[in-house]
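User: Thanks for the earlier help. One more: PRUN2 protein. Can you show the sequence and predicted structure together?

Assistant: Of course, both are below.
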Amino acid sequence: PGYHGEGFGAILLFAACHLPDNSIPQYGYVMENLLRYIVGTLERMVADRYVLVCLTGAAARGQIPSFGWMKRCYQAMDRRLRKNLQAVIIVHPTWYIKVLVTLSRPFLSPTFSGKVRFAASLRELSQLIPLEPTHVPEPV
């Protein structure tokens, strides 16, 4: 949704409530193309440091991508994008997401694990980065 001049650079917002439910036909095909779209968009948009904000509020459990899909997203990014990623902030994390992230930490690089942060509310997020309320989808 914008840029943050105090160390983060670009701020990219990802709202899980807009993802397809995993029960739709050809879910794997849709998510594979979404992965390509996300990585392609990052490659075009990100020239320097950036932060990724994942809004999980208002998303059904079937809309939350699997750990394997998220891992493929990270692996599909080239070294420049992985290096320039300053933080991944997960807003409104459910216990399922917290457990998933906690259990996956031993399998992730310590550098990436240190970039993952949780924000329990939009107010807490606003203390971490400047965020206009108009950038947050209505369901969240």
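User: Great, one quick takeaway?

Assistant: The chain is about 40% helix and 20% strand.
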